[in-house]
Write a structure and sequence with these properties.
Largest sheet of chain A: 2 strands, antiparallel
Largest interface: A-B, 21 and 26 residues
Strand content of chain B: 15-25%
Number of strands of chain B: 22
Helix content of chain A: over 70%
Structural class of chain A: mainly alpha
Number of helices of chain A: 15
Shape of chain B: globular
Number of strands of chain A: 2
Strand order of the largest sheet of chain B: 6-9-10-3-11-12
Oligomer: heterodimer
Helix content of chain B: 25-40%
Order of helices and strands of chain A: HHHHHHHHEEHHHHHHH
Chain lengths: ~325, ~500
């Protein structure tokens, strides 16, 4: 009847913010970082910088999608990073020999798929522990990458491939479009198909899923398989990004990938998370690295700042989620 | 004599002796629900007291209060006539052997026995001494077990004995035994009774919890009977007969007409022939359309295992026929396809997706029904509406369908689980403890639903430890004992006392 007078109680006014912060704990941190870096560096919000950041993070983004699916089932895939390397090397070798880019893409995807299938079979069918299994296949992938490349970058990348790396459409690099396409597809599959639902349910409670008639083994096999294929694609994209297939390209990415997924808010216990959260998590780490680089902070100092900010972020996130109760 | 009157002990022959342990008006509530109320008894040195009652009567809660695991909500505990505010069971020489073993399989017998009070200094445990303590204790009790063996290498019965020997290291005055004989063989059981006799001679008081009436009469001197958390009787066992005691446990005359069950048709829906596995043997029975068959039996009798096996969750030998057709590959998907469903007893571990929304929980077993076919299987058109319908037909009380299941009460969680299976439109229901941990109101609604299902043409099997539930709902009750069907009762001759004694009888074919 009467118009309500301001101020509303803080709990009502800020409820949407609290809710967003609970589901997407990294959002406020990303926003804060964006604001801070745009104030601190005049180059941060330039088209060139944004374009470069998008391109250089597509490999991590593609691989993180695969990692998200695996974590959602309650597993983990430690081989993702080095499968990127071995896929890049194999693809680079084939493209160097044949100058055939589509064939190179198929090789990268096939190498990733092979590793994914092996992981999936060992974990899903034979019931081995994901941590050990993927650690072992990851070591094999790393070894193969170095053996076949003899430890050096593969020469003879086709020009078409190099062009692809520099291409851009609507101000967004071609490689970022690839990543974006995969993200959108994965988000739709995860939230709108029965397979996506089964992934969530197996991760939430494996026994209950089995009782409900869901084949947990098939679901587990499939997420490792998809993660493998995506690692292969990420390896291919890395060639476009860097101009060469580099045998150690993925080796340092493992913690960045896992970190991005978990910081985004996907639970390592399974059954909770989404692709959107992972995108936000990747954005968080990417913004952080990019901004600190622009500010001219040396690499090792950056690590310290990153560590502290991750602490702060997690603390903030848990405070937000507690504020709800 | 059978009145709930603690003063009777004061006028009894033992009035000069001080009870080692007494409780007065002991009470325990969990979040407003009283599970033990107004419990009073005395325990004298060298005496064995039987704590009897059905599942859920409050025996375990009482046990946990007496060994210091739970703080009572009201009443007093007296040790040697002195009131104690916080019971330090260890300090008072009270120890309990719980129904679930609490041994570390990968440690040795000696390490397990001494784990609570390791000899030597914290940084340098005197293992030879621990070994000696264990060896002495085992030989005093006349048990032949090598203290250096790993516990996991021992059989279930020997592990139970080790557990008792371990408790006795601390139980200088009171030993509480909760169903100590369920995993023992006949000679092991005899050995245990001998040990108990020696302990009594040495002045140690025993609290003995068991379903087996023969054991209670053999071991115990006095008794306290609990029903629904209330003390309904106490006194000396020599004054009451076994039927009287059992009637006291089950209590009020059972209302058979609480739910009017409809007459089943003659069409056979489910037939099980000579089903056997490592947990049960030669299980054969059939269920007709519209019929409710109860599976009664003690904990560990094999009820759950049989139900899970019919649903294809366990490996078995034998035949299962659905609507007269033998199922060649018994697995979950096949049984689901044949419209069989199994509602688990353990909804937290095997039933619900606790951190997922109610909507997803309700549609989990029938998800393909909600996939939109127009766009090549993408999208869950109508899922929310379908789930909302289940919520209203099952009368599930919830703030929002997107709430996580973990936020609901036990009764509503159980209804979500039931609702999930309703959505698959099964014709054969296997219920395992359908009302475990739910409040009275939800229990009644779930019972109503089960009766309606049968009346609507479903075949129903209920495995339950709640005998009243089975008496109320079933057309027939099969009594299981140690993995076998020990007997069968028709509704016309239901007799709770007979059923209990058949389930608990330790001798084969005594019923």
């Amino acid at each position: 009847m009467y118009p309500r007078t301001f101020p509303y109680p803080a709990s009502i006014m800020f409820a949407p913010i609290f809710k967003t912060a609970r589901i997407y704990p990294a959002v406020p941190i990303v926003l804060a970082l964006l604001a801070a870096f745009s104030l601190l560096s005049p180059y941060f919000l330039t088209a060139g910088n944004i374009e470069a950041a998008l391109a250089s993070n597509s490999v991590v983004l593609i691989a993180s999608v695969g990692m998200t699916l695996v974590l959602l089932t309650g597993g983990i895939d430690l081989s993702i990073a080095t499968v990127i390397s071995v896929s890049a090397v194999m693809s680079g070798l084939v493209m160097g020999a044949t100058d055939n880019v589509p064939l190179g893409f198929l090789v990268a995807a096939a190498v990733g798929a092979t590793f994914g299938a092996v992981n999936g079979a060992l974990i899903g069918v034979f019931g081995l522990a994901p941590f050990i299994t993927t650690m072992a296949t990851g070591l094999i992938a790393r070894g193969l990458a170095f053996v076949y490349s003899e430890g050096v970058a593969i020469k003879g990348t086709p020009y078409w491939m190099l062009d692809f790396g520099f291409m851009s459409f609507l101000g967004i690099p071609a490689v970022a479009w690839v990543a974006l396409l995969i993200v959108v597809l994965a988000a739709i599959v995860l939230s709108q198909t029965t397979w996506g639902r089964e992934v969530m349910l197996v991760g939430s409670n494996r026994n209950a899923a089995i009782h409900a008639g869901i084949s947990a083994r098939t679901v587990e096999f499939s997420v490792y398989f998809v993660a493998g294929v995506l690692s292969g694609v990420a390896g291919f994209v890395s060639i476009a990004n860097l101009g060469n297939a580099i045998p150690g390209v993925g080796d340092t990415l493992l913690l960045i990938i896992i970190g991005a997924v978990v910081l985004g808010g996907t639970s390592m216990n399974g059954g909770e998370g989404s692709i959107l959260r992972t995108v936000i998590g990747v954005a968080l780490l990417a913004t952080l690295t990019n901004g600190l680089n622009l500010l001219g902070i040396p690499f090792y100092d950056q690590l310290i700042v990153q560590g502290i900010l991750i602490f702060l972020g997690t603390w903030l996130a848990s405070t937000f989620s507690r504020a709800r109760d | 004599m059978l009145q709930n009157n603690p003063s009777q002990f004061e006028t009894s022959g033992k009035s000069e002796a001080t009870p080692v342990l007494s409780v007065r008006h002991l009470k325990k509530s969990f979040s407003g629900k009283t599970v033990v109320n107004d419990l009073s008894f005395d325990l004298y040195p060298g005496e064995a007291l039987a704590l009897v009652g059905e599942n859920g009567a409050g025996k375990s809660t009482t046990k946990n209060m007496l060994c210091g695991l739970l703080q009572p909500s009201g009443g007093t505990i007296l040790i040697d006539g002195q009131e104690v505010e916080y019971l330090d069971a260890d300090e008072q020489g009270i120890a309990a052997v719980h129904q679930e073993l609490s041994l570390f399989g990968t440690l040795t017998v000696a390490e397990n026995m001494c784990i609570a009070h390791l000899p030597g200094r914290p940084a340098r445990v005197d293992w030879p001494k621990a070994d000696r303590i264990a060896r002495d204790q085992l030989s005093v009790l006349g048990i032949e077990i090598d203290p250096a063996m790993l516990v996991e290498e021992l059989g279930a019965g020997k592990q139970q004995i080790v557990e008792i020997a371990k408790a006795l290291l601390q139980a200088s005055r009171v030993l509480i035994l909760d169903e100590p004989t369920t995993s023992l063989t006949a000679p092991e059981r005899e050995k245990l009774f001998e040990i108990i006799e020696t302990l009594k001679e040495r002045g140690i008081a025993i609290i003995f919890i068991s379903h087996f009436m023969e054991e209670i009469y053999r071991v115990c001197d006095t008794f306290v009977t609990l029903r629904d958390g209330q003390q309904v009787g106490s006194g000396r066992l020599s004054d009451v007969g076994q039927p009287e005691l059992e009637a006291m446990m089950v209590g009020r005359a059972v209302g058979h007409d609480a739910h009017a069950v409809a007459e089943p048709s003659s069409e056979e829906m489910l037939r099980v022939e000579e089903l056997s596995s490592e947990d049960f043997h030669d299980i054969s029975f059939s269920v007709r359309r519209g019929e409710i068959v109860g599976l009664a039996g003690l904990m560990g009798a094999g009820r759950t295992e049989v139900a899970e096996s019919i649903y294809g969750l366990r490996k078995t030998t034998g035949r299962i026929l659905v609507k007269g057709e033998a199922v060649s590959a018994v697995n979950v998907r096949e049984m689901k396809r044949r419209r069989v469903c199994y509602v688990t007893e353990d909804r937290r571990s095997n039933g619900l997706f606790l951190n997922r929304p109610v909507r997803e929980n309700l549609t989990a077993a029938a998800i393909t029904r909600f996939v939109r076919r127009m766009v090549a299987g993408i999208g869950f058109a109508g899922e929310r509406k379908g789930a909302a319908e289940v919520v209203s037909t099952m009368k599930i009380a919830l703030p929002h369908i997107e709430n996580q299941v973990v936020e609901l009460s036990g009764g509503n969680q159980q209804k979500v689980l039931l609702g999930r299976w309703m959505a698959t439109e099964p014709e054969i229901f296997l219920f395992d403890e359908p009302t475990k941990g739910v409040d009275i109101g939800a229990k009644f609604e779930i019972h109503r639903k089960i009766v309606d299902l049968a009346a609507g043409g479903a075949a129903v099997v209920i495995a339950s430890s709640d005998l009243l539930e089975l008496l109320n709902l079933s057309h027939r009750i099969l009594v299981m004992r140690k993995g076998r069907i020990a007997g069968e009762f028709d509704r016309s001759d239901f007799n709770s006392v007979k059923i209990i004694s058949m389930a608990a009888s330790s001798t084969e074919g005594s019923a």
